[in-house]
Amino acid sequence: MMSFNDHYVIIGNGPAGNHAAKTLRKKDKGARITIISDEMIPYYYKPKLTGFIADEIAQKDLLVTSLESYKEKDIRVRLGQAVEQIDPDSKSLVLKHMETIKYSKLIIATGSRERLLPFMSGYADHLKFITSYTDVMDYKEKIQNAKEFFIFGGDLVGFKFLKMLNSMGKKVTILIYPNAFWPYNLTEDMLDQIFTSLSQFDVSIIIKDDISTIDKKDNGSYRIKTLKGVEKTVDMVFSFNGLVPDIDFVKGSGIDTDYGILVNEYLKTNIDGIYACGSCAQIYNPDMKSYSASIGWPNAVVQGEVAAYNLLGDHKVIESVGRKYFDLEGVKIKTTWWGDINDASQE
Amino acid sequence: MEEIRSAYLDETLDTVRAADFLQYRSKDLPTWCPGCGYFGIVDALYRACRELDLKQENIVTVSGIGCSGRTPIFINTYGFHTLHGRSIPVATGLKLAREDLTVFAVAGDGDALGIGGGHLPHVARKNINITFLLFDNSIYGLTKGQSSSTTPHEMKTSSHPAGNPDTPLNPIRLALAYGASFVARGYAGDPQGLKDIIKNGILYQGFSFIQILTPCVTFDKENRTWKNLKENVVDLTPRMEEKNMETAMRLAQNEPHGVGIFFWDKKRPHYQEILRNLNKGN
Amino acid sequence: MKDIDIVIEICGSAGEGTISAGEILSRFMSGQGFEIMSFDSYPAEIRGFGKCVAHTRISSNPIYSPGKLADVLISLNDNHAISQLPTLKESGILIYDSQPARPHEEDKSVAGRTKPGMISYGIPLNMLAHKAAGNARGMNMVALGALSALFHVDKDRFTDSIKARYGKKKQVVIDANVNSFLEGYDWAKENIKKSDPYSFEGVNLPEQKEKLIVNGNQLVAQAALDANLMFYAGYPITPATKIMEILSKELPKHGGTLLQTEDEIAAIGAVIGAGFGGKRAMTATSGPGFALMTEFTGLSVMAEVPAVIIDSQRAGPSTGMPTKTEQSDFNSAVMGGTGDCPRIVLAPADTKSCYEATVLALYFAEKYQTLVVVLLDFFLSNSIKNIDVPKKPAKKYRIANIAPKKEDLKDYKRYKITKSGISPRAVPGTPGGIFFSTGLEHNEYGRPDYSQAGHLKMTQKRYDKFNAVLVEAPAPEISAMGRGKVDIGVISWGSSAGAAREAVMAAQKEGIKAASFSSMMVSPFPEKALIKFADNCRKILIPELNFSGQFADFATCILKRPVEKLNFITGRPMASEDILQKMREM
Known about the structure:
Chain A is of the alpha/beta class.
C-alpha cells in the first residue's frame, strides 16, 4: 500500500482525468490526489455544450460531479490553474501563476483542443471555436444575438452546432472540408452522404471549395470569399476542423511526443512515473507496431482507469480496438485510428 | 465658678480674635479626639493663610480618607474629601485646571504612603504647584489603630499585636528621592514654627512636601506621644543647606525628629511653567 | 444609472504600503462622491513583517457597516493573502502578482488556493513596479492602477488624487507613485480580459458635499475641543491612546492643559479635581483602565462632581484582546461599582455620532453634575468613515453650569434639594460659595450625615437628577416599515446598530417585515420608547458583541418578555449578513 506522503497529480479534469482520480482513490486511501484544470468549471459533459449555448440546459446540468463529491473522496481540485511546464528530474511542475508542485507520479489527461488549419493561421483572430466551457462562456451571448453564421470544416461538434443554430432560427452557411476530422479523412462517398443528410436542414452548403479571404468589417461583421467566388457576409465565423492534443506545455520536458504524448500499451510515457491517457495520448500497439489516437468519452474513461491501475503497480493493457463508432449524419466514424498522420486515407 | 469660666472663655476669645484668623475656621465642631495633634496643624494652617492674606474662596483643601480626611470640614475654604490615597491626583487636576487657586492636599501617613504611594513620585517629579501636608502619626487612627507605612518596627498595634514586622518608610527621604524641590518637616506641637514652614511651602511655586510629626493620643500611647515628641523634636535649621541633596538625605536618615526645610530648589520651574516653555518652542 | 457597493481588501506585509494604498483609494473615492468606510488591521508586532489588511467598502448609497466579506482581494504578499482568502466572497476577485521573483512552493501561492467561482487576475506587480521606479515599493500603486483599469476608474482623476496626497513630498516620490500607478493601469488595460461585473463608470452619485475622513477617536478629540474641554488627564491604553495624543497637541492651543498620569486612577482623579474646579475635563481609556476607575465613579456621583470617561471597549475580560472589538463593558459602564450609583452612559452607533456623543457627554456632565461614560469600541475608534463636517455645538451646550443666584449664596447649600435634583453649583473662587464635597453621605450643606431620612433624600435626589436627563436625550434611531406590526424587531446598541440597520433593510427587501431600534442614550434608557417599539414586534432579536447578552438581559428586564439573543465574540465588528441569516431562521 502506498504511504501517506505520495502525491498523485492529474493534469486535466475531463473523463480521463476524473476516472483516473476515482480509480486512484478507490485503490489508495492515503495518498494525496490533485486534479489540475485550466477551466473554472468542475468536471462537465463536453458534448452537452451545444445545448448549453442554446439555453436548452442550465449550467448545473452540464456538470458531471459537484465539488462536494471531490471533497468526499478527498481529491483536491485546482480549477482555473494551468500547467506551464513539467520538470521530470525534480518531479515537479510549475503552474502559470508561478507555483511549484511536487508529485510522486503524474497522469497527463489534458484532452484535445481545436485544430487551426495551417493556412488559416492568418485569420486566427476572426475564427471562433467551441471546444471548452470557457469558449462557450465567451461567446454565448453573442451567438444568441447574432443572425448569420459561417461554419467551415465539419467535425462532430461542427454538425451538432449547425443543427443547434438551425433550431435557433439562425442563417447558416457551411463549407465542408474533407479532412475536417483530421487525421481521419472523409471519403467522397461519405461526403455525399453527409451532404444529402444535411440538405433537409435550412442551411447553405458549399462543398469542393475553399476559403480565399476573410475580412473583418468596421461594424464587426465578417466578409468571406471562396476560391470559387462565393461571397457571404456574416456575424460570426466558426472553424470545426478536428481536434489536436492539448500538450504544448509538455514540449521541452523530456517526455516523448509526436502530435500527442507517446505512451506504451500500459499508458506509460518514456519517463517512469508519468502516464498519459485520453485524446492527448498516442498509444503504442505492439502487434501493429504503430501508435493509435482516439477521441470520445468512452475511450477516455477506460484509458483513465487503466492509467490509474498501472500507476499503482498493475499491468493492464489497453484494448487495441477503439470503443465505439460515432454516427455522423448516417456515416459511421471510428473513434480510434492508427498510423502516421500523413497517411490520411486510413480508415 | 460661673464667673471664672466666662472670664477664661472671654480671654481665649479675645486672644483668638486678636490673631484674626477666625474666618478660616468653620462653624462645625471637630470630631478629632481631645488632645489630637491635628488641632495644632490646622491652627498653623489658619495662621499661615492669614499672614499671607489669602482669601478663603480662593483656597481649596483636598483630603483623602482617615482622620486627616476631616480637615476640610474644619477649615473655611472650598473643601473636597475624596478617596483613600487620592488627594494628590485630585489636587493636581484641580490646580492644573485652576491656576488661580491655592490648593492644599492633606493626607495621613497610611493614605499617602500606602495606597496613595504611587502618586507621590509623579507629583514630585512634575513639580505640580500644590502644598502637600502629610499628617504623620504613624498609625491608622480612624480605623482604630492598625500599623501604617511609618509605624516603627516591632511596635505593637491592633493589626500586629505581637509587634510590627515591617520596617517603616522614611517620608523625607522618599520625597527627596522622588525629586521634590521643597521638602520639609514640621511638628504639630509648634504652631508658630509649623506656620512658618507652611507659609514657605505655600509661597514656593512648585510641589511643597511637608511632613508633620503629630501624635495619635488614642491609639499610640508608647511611641509617638506628646512627651516623646517634645523631648526629641529638634530644629535642624542651623545644620541645613538649601540645596544639598547629600546633606538633606543624611539629615533625613539620621534625624527622624528633626524639623526644618531639608531641600529648597527655588529656581526650579513648576509644571505649568515647564509646559509653557515647551509649547513656546513649538 | 446604477449603484455600486463593493468591498476591496488589500493584503500585504508591514512596510509594503498596504495601508497607505487603502487610504489613497478611500480618499479618492470619497472625493468622487462615494461613501467609504475603512477598517484596517495591523500586525501585533511593533516591528517585522506581520500581516496588514486595508479593508475598504465603497458605495453609492449610505454605508452602515464595514462588510463581512470582500468582493476584491489584492495580494501584495501571497503568504499573508492566503490567510485572508477565507474572507473573499465565493464569486470574489483576486488580484495577485503573476511574476514573483521565483515560483511559490506548493500551496504558498494565493492564486493556487482560489475556490471555483472566484475570478483571478494575475498582474506582474513586481515587474511593473521595478519598471516604474526601479524597486518593488510601488507594487501597491501598480495594483491600484490595475484595479482602476479593471473597474473603469478615471485614470487622470486618480493620478491627480495621488499627487494631492503626496503633494508635500519630494517630486521623485510623487513621480514614483504616479508612474507605478500608470504602469499598472496601462498593463491591465492592454492585457486583462475583464470577466467581472464591477464598474465605477456611470454610477448614480448623490450631490457632492465637503466631507471629513475620520475615525471615532479623532471625532471624540475634535468634539471635546469644540465643546470647551479645558483639561485632559490620561494614560496610554489601546485603543484610546490616539485621543490623548491628538489633544496633547491641540488642547494647549485652546488654552487647556493635558496631563499624562502615572495610572488610570490618577487620571480620573485629576479629571474630577478639574471638574470640582468648574472646568470641563475628560479622560479616555479601555476596559482595564475603566475597571481601575470604578471607585472614582462612585465619588463623582456621590459628590456630584462632573466627569467624562470615554471607554473604547476591547475584547475582555481583563487585558483581553486589546486590538479586537467587543461590546462587553455594558454591564460595567451602566451598573458597575458599588452602591446605588446612577450614571449617564452614551453609546454612539456610528463614527459620526462619536462627535455628538462627546459634546453631549461634556454638556450632561457639567449640567447634571455627575459622571458620564461614553462607550466606543475598537471598531468605532479606528474605522474610518467619510462624514459631513460636524456642526459646532451651540453655546447652550458649551456652557452649562447652573450657578447659584445671589440669594443662594447667603446661606449656600451646595446640595440643595430641588425639583429637578440639580443643585446650583458654586465654583471655587466664588465668594460666599464655599462648600464642602465628600464621598460620604451628606446633608444639603455637604456635611457628613448618616441619618436614615438623609440618605434616602439624597439618594432620591441623585436618581431624580439622573432621570431628568431623559428629557434632553437624543431620540432613538428607529427604522420601521410604515405602520402596523412587524415580524421581527431588531434592537441593538453601539456599533452593532449599523449592521442591524442594514440587515433590516435587506430583510425588508426579502419580504420579511422587520424594523430596527437603537438608542445612543443607554443610561438612563428611554424605556417608554423601547416598550412602544417592542409592542409592534411579534419577535425581538438582540444582536451584540458579547457572550452572555448583557444588553439583551437589560432590555428583557424592561420589556418583561423573552427575546432572541444573537451573540458574537469574534473580535470583528458585527456583520449585517449574520443578523440577516438569523432573521431568516426566526
